[in-house]
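User: Before I run my own analysis I want an independent prediction to cross-check against. Here's the chain; please return only the structure tokens and, at the end, one sentence I can use as a sanity check.
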Amino acid sequence: MDKLNAMAIFVRVVERGSFSAVAREMQTSQPTISKVLRALESELGGKLIARSTRKLSLTDEGQRYYDQCRQILAAVDAAEHSFQSGRETIAGPLRIGSSVSFGRLQIAPRLPAFLARYPGIQIDLQLSDQNQDLVSEGLDVTFRIGALNDSGLIARQIGTTHRLTVATPQYLAQHGEPQTPEDLREHNCLQFNLLTSQNLWVYDHGTGRHEVRIKGNAQSNNSEAIREMVLGGLGIALSPVWLFSEDLKAGKVTAILQDYSAQSLPIHAVSPANRRQSARVKAFVDYMSQALEAAPELQAIK
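Assistant: Structure tokens:
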């Protein structure tokens, strides 16, 4: 038995919580993964995983062995990287996470050019509007917008999401156009509820900072749903420029409160702290950083 390979499979099963998920990752069968772990348990002389119909859980011995395996595998990985530095091939599977809107509008359209440059990479783009757990979902890198709450991650800021306040001309004709952030209190404001700021909209102006608690009759955890509500004339939104850039050009929405600078949000590429960034992860993060820096829809509207 290849002990190091068995240890790596064991660690992945613990992280993913599923034999079948690891089998798909490794392009093998679930019985093969089970066979490797049974052989490992037999050689160790005890159970590592307590199997049930609902979930996998570690035995006490399994938890200790898992912690030690992670340290051993990290040391081996670091030793190989030190030896191969500068010679690592940019190829292999790359599992990327992102919010739905950012992934669909900013990542997916850039994948053809990236894969033309690195044809040996296979992309698996996973989109979710919940903060993805990198380890349990097997992600190599994920993109997050806004403040990072988890300090146990490797994060690199690769861009900035500038935001603006928008509404349709029809909504403004019916309800009037706010002239100051404080006027928003009298309007139906549509809330994207995954940000830590929640219903607090913050603006900077020459006269100081304006913090306004907004209210409205609709909210969502998906920014494209907010966009559709705005386009339907339901209310006002504080949203990324890149989400409404085409609508602004077409005159479908109007940018308001332009004398006030809405608080911008950082875009981070985030990786697990206990996993060395592969050459393909670094190549993709570098590529996205350069692409976002040049993207007109990622620039602040003057």
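Sanity check: The first strand starts at residue 49 and ends at 51.
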